[in-house]
Design a protein that fits this description.
Jelly Rolls; five-stranded mixed beta sheet; single chain; eight-stranded mixed beta sheet; alpha+beta; 20% strand
Length: 364
């Protein structure tokens, strides 16, 4: 039975006012058993729906980028074909041999852990729900909109409008690893958009010339061990409002992708990064590439960390995007109207994460 809306709002506010997030609930238990508040318990219809969906042992494709810089070579052609197939059939793929040192990846994940596990008074200084703050910490951006809260805390680094971040604005405990990781991502993101362009049959620089990778935001997630992972989620099912998302996850796992109406576990692969197609690239590709539903489940005994980099294009000044004209044919008529990234992102954040995809707002 769901709690009343008035009671729920009161409980949400009490939780929010602590500015301590989910980890604060765990710490408050002081070694005792953690009791999950009602606001985190998923509605009965969601839990029932889960029982109807099968699990699959199929695995998200793994793409080896070794040789990707040798344009026109057979390794490059293989990689493009694998990206094409994965983007059409899964909307998700691992990349290995991507050029970012494992040390950089590990230090980024360690930085996320150290931020969340530092002195509470230091961490609370960053707690905010003001979307104008470029660096902010909170638990569930959609806390007051979703049907149930997710078992996670997040540090957001928003470069969607400024296109850069001043290192001095970052928390000192994770400043250097974050700057290092973002710098290393630059080349990989450029390469990924080249591969996606070629996979669509376009000129190599097409998506980069459209500046699809210009606006970025980083969501650093911390998922404390959850005593009731069958009753709550780390992240509700959703699609991403981005062109692509590059995800770094630790060895714990928990990410699941909805593939052919079955949940597929995205097993951790040491040193890999996960790339997924977002709503905006599905629109640009005129439905050739798929932005698919995914979620994260909790772990009963271990804390999990992940870092999602959302590549969102140009938001300021407003730039109009729409289906790429070369991909519109008599057989594949235009499926979407034009849009601005700013409008799309505003609509995305004005609703609960678990609500229906924003693609419906621009579908013809």
């Amino acid at each position: 039975m769901e709690i009343s809306q008035d009671s729920r709002i009161k409980q949400l506010k009490v939780f929010d006012d602590t500015k301590l997030g989910v980890k604060g609930l765990v710490d408050a238990a002081a070694g005792g058993s953690v009791v999950i508040p009602e606001i985190f318990i998923r509605p009965p219809d969601e839990l029932a729906e889960d029982l109807e969906l099968a699990r699959t042992s199929l695995q998200v494709p793994v793409i080896d980028l070794m040789g990707v810089d040798d344009k026109g070579s057979s390794p490059r052609e293989r990689i493009v074909q694998e990206v094409k197939q994965a983007s059409e059939e899964w909307g998700f793929f691992h990349v290995v041999n991507h050029g970012i040192p494992i040390k950089v990846l590990k230090e980024m994940l360690t930085g996320v852990s150290e931020f969340n596990e530092q002195d509470l008074q230091v961490k609370k200084q960053y707690y905010s729900r003001d979307p104008e703050k470029l660096v902010r910490f909170n638990s569930n951006y959609d806390l007051y909109m979703s049907r149930s809260a997710n078992w996670r805390d997040s540090l957001f680094i928003d470069m969607l409008n400024s296109y850069h971040v001043d290192p001095q604005d970052l928390p000192s405990v994770c400043r250097d690893p974050t700057v290092d990781y973002l710098n290393h991502l630059e080349k990989l993101v450029h390469t990924l958009f080249e591969l996606l362009s070629e996979a669509l049959g376009l000129e190599t620089n097409h998506l980069n010339q459209m500046e699809c990778g210009k606006g970025r935001s980083l969501a650093c997630h911390y998922y404390p061990a959850c005593p009731m992972p069958d009753q709550t989620l780390g992240v509700s099912k959703h699609t991403d409002a981005s062109f692509i998302t590059v995800l770094l996850q630790d060895e714990i796992g928990g990410l699941q992708v909805l593939h052919e109406n079955q949940w597929a576990d995205v097993e951790p692969i040491s040193g890999s990064l996960i790339v997924n197609i977002g709503d905006l690239l599905q629109i640009l590709s005129n439905d050739k590439f798929k932005s698919v539903i995914h979620r994260a489940i909790g772990n009963v005994s271990r804390t999990r960390t992940s870092v999602a980099c959302f590549l969102d294009g140009v938001a300021t000044p407003p730039k109009v995007y729409g289906p790429i004209m070369e991909l519109i044919t008599k057989e594949s008529p235009q499926m979407y109207t034009e849009f601005t990234v700013r409008d799309y992102i505003i609509k995305f954040f004005s609703r609960g994460l678990d609500e229906k995809s924003g693609l419906n707002h621009v579908r013809i």
